[in-house]
Amino acid sequence: MFAAKVKSFAKLNLSLNIAGASGGYHLLDSVVTSIDIYDTVCTKPRDDRLINVYMHGLNSETIPPEKNNAVKAGEAFVNAFSTRGADVEIYKDIPMGAGLGGSSADAAGVLNALAKLYKIKDRAKLKELADTLGSDTGYMLSGGFARISGRGERVEPLGACPPLHFLLFLPRTPVSTAECFAEYDKAPDALRADSARMERALREGNFLQIAQNIYNALQAPACRLNDETAQALEAAKAFSPSAAAVTGSGSAVFALFESEELCRWAKSRYKGKLKTRIVKSVAPAAKRAGIKNPFVLGEDEGK
Dihedral (C-alpha) 85, 129, 81, 157: value to the nearest 10 degrees? Predict the structure, then answer.
């Protein structure tokens, strides 16, 4: 029996600009949303200060502990809040190496689960801790629609926005984030999305403007590095969606449609070899914040 269990959701980058570089890191300006694919993080308290993480699914069992952000998150939490340790079980459903934020979701999920387990209420300190663990981790603590900038540490929640529906195309081979940024640096994209315009379109619920501002500066390098990503993008565009793009540094591609029914139509007619999934935007932090809104589709904690 687990003492604390949470869901940690994947994300999509609706717009992603490279806004420069600082201290050896790329600076981002991105509008993101959580989607209803999640990893489940379960915790039990220990009598000592050790963190043991057990991964399940999607070949996650092969991740070395020293490279597992979930382990790093647990150890950082114990040190920061002087709590006991925990045994952590993570059940993966977020594909790895797909640009869906799976590693950051696991780190954020561990922080949220341990905060629930040990009744830690200091969300500001938890956010500071998350920012040391990866560029998306601070955002993943709460998720939902947001604009993130800097190295990802600056998060501006956008509040309730109309639900969006996507068909995901999931290549079998991942894209290395480091290699994708290096490939981008060889030929920076002269085009730029207006993330402020995307933010405004979401706040106003203007679907046409949302679709017109879908953009990812890392899309071209991701496609150059991974033939399956390029194939996925062409497959997505073949169904004439409202928009289609790579998410993050790839390898996953999403097609935006006006309704779940259109997503189902496209999925039923796709005859390629790539795995596809129908997903929608969610607002994971809504329950925690006590928000009541017809656009809120998800919740942050498992029962």
Answer: -110
